[in-house]
Amino acid sequence: MPACLVALDLDGTLLTADSRIPAGHERAVDDMRRLGAEVVLVTGRSLMTTGWVWRMLRLRTPVICFNGAWAGLPGSVPTCSAVLDEDSVNAIVSELRPFAGAICAYPDESTWIMDREIPRTRHWREHYGARIDVLPQRFSPWRGPSYKVMFVTDPDLLPGVCAHVRDRLGDRLHIVASESDRVEILPRGITKAWALERVARDLGIGRERVWAVGDADNDREMIRWAGHGCAMGHAHDALRDQARHVLPSIHARGLCALPGMIARAYGRSAPADG
After folding, report:
1. Residues 134 and 110 both lie in one domain
2. Is the entire prediction scored with pTM above 0.85?
3. Helices (H), 153-204
4. What angle is formed at CA 11 by the lines to CA 8 and CA 15, rounded to 5 degrees?
5. Shared domain check, 250 and 168
6. Band of the pLDDT at 274, cuts 50, 70, 90?
7. d(CA 158, CA 179)
8. Is the distance from CB of 48 to CB of 35 less than 8 angstroms?
């Protein structure tokens, strides 16, 4: 039986701001696996922008994408998933239209569509290493489901956008600001914790042996749910206050502290450096 499950957020936790895995973090993942941990990637990204991380780390565990709306092994049928239906997507688009920004939708695991290009998104194809289609006609009206809808805008405008969408749609959708310039909208109740609970159950690992690490508001639910919720040191105060453990920041390669913590928690010897 695995010692524990370690759920790792990507951006700002495992990955740096320029979407790289620091060498120290790669070693930390290897060390956790040597300790018997099952390492699971848990991200707001789509599967097509997560797969390279899973392959680079040589993982064999499920990945959780779209903030919990898809979980499974890359290349396989998902073990759990949830989508926004067509009516919900169109209701969201209608509420976002008056605001300056770009609407993103994801009809399947490997398709990313935006209604327009804005300065904040022009570098995204290179940053995420993905094809992003700008197809405004697909949104008038939207046809079919989407795993989530994401809206990207100026950080100064984001609080007003979030307040408006929550006022109009918050009773039936999950709405979370995942970064300072974007809000993500999913079916109500669908969070990283929702999918993580199911993956942990499938792996036979109890909640008390789950370590969940993140740095942003979309990590809040899984940090609260896990027996060992961990916030990165650069996370905002409210998230750090909810965490059982606080790691150093991404700038200090915070994940490097985790193998030692896990070894102490389960009475094992930490892997030697190098």
Report:
1. yes
2. yes
3. 158-169, 192-203
4. 80
5. no
6. very low
7. 10
8. no
